[in-house]
């Protein structure tokens, strides 16, 4: 029987205000107000060929991202070749261990997804990860204190996906061999697929006002 497990990363804790200590593994770790993060780095907005990463469905992934953002009155993102390239490098690193660990960078937001399978997976598509991240909307409550009320629910992939102040995204995907041991003790070779998407400016700024301004209620399906 084929075995398949899909798992998004546990979203990094939301960065607290500057007066609160930040865990070393937190990613992203903004301490600025929404919209004041660093501007786009090289490649931001260059979406001519949707290059940089290896997602064969990069256009579909971008279209899905922007369709979900439109539901929440967030403007469309542009594809960043540099973000896609760095996402690709990180996806290849994570796939080797099949262990999702956030990079901890201060420069961008980051969503991760892994799928461990047997037999080996050959599907490099990325759009299904976008869909999985958006499904977290079902756990999100649009209250007046949204960060306080929602973060423990593990909805950080959704909130980064639709974060209004974000303007660019780039994604990468990698597949590596992953041994699988059956209950009988027999060892078989499966695979681990990892999808990484990075966002600028980063979302999930750790305050209720930031979440109120950047994660808006759904206006259409």
Descriptive notes:
Residues 1-45 are annotated as: Disordered. It comes from Gonium pectorale. The chain has 221 residues and is of the alpha+beta class. The chain has a single domain (3-8, 45-214), classed as 3-Layer(aba) Sandwich (Pathogenesis-related Protein p14a), CATH 3.40.33.10. Helices cover 26% and strands 21% of the residues. The chain has a five-stranded mixed sheet. 47% of the residues are buried. Mean pLDDT is 83; it is low at 14-48.
Helix proportion = 25-40%
Task: Determine the CATH superfamily.
Answer: CAP
How many structural domains does the protein architecture include? Answer: 1
- Please give the order of strands in the largest beta sheet: 1-3-5-4-2
Distance between the termini: 36 Å
Low-confidence stretches: 14-48
Beta-strand residue percentage: 15-25%
Could you say which overall geometry the principal axes of the C-alpha atoms support?
globular
Structural class, judged by helices and strands?
alpha+beta
**Rg estimate, integer Å:** 17 Å
Name of the level-1 CATH class: Alpha Beta
Q: How would you state the average pLDDT, rounded?
A: 83
CATH topology: Pathogenesis-related Protein p14a
Q: Which architecture name does CATH use?
A: 3-Layer(aba) Sandwich
Strand count: 5
Please describe the biggest sheet, giving its number of strands, its sense, and whether it closes into a barrel.
Answer: 5 strands, mixed
Number of helical elements? 6
Biased composition (Pro residues): 9-19
Pfam families: CAP
InterPro entries: Allrgn_V5/Tpx1_CS, CAP_dom, CAP_sf, CRISP-related, SCP_GAPR1-like, V5_allergen-like
Domain SCP: 56-207
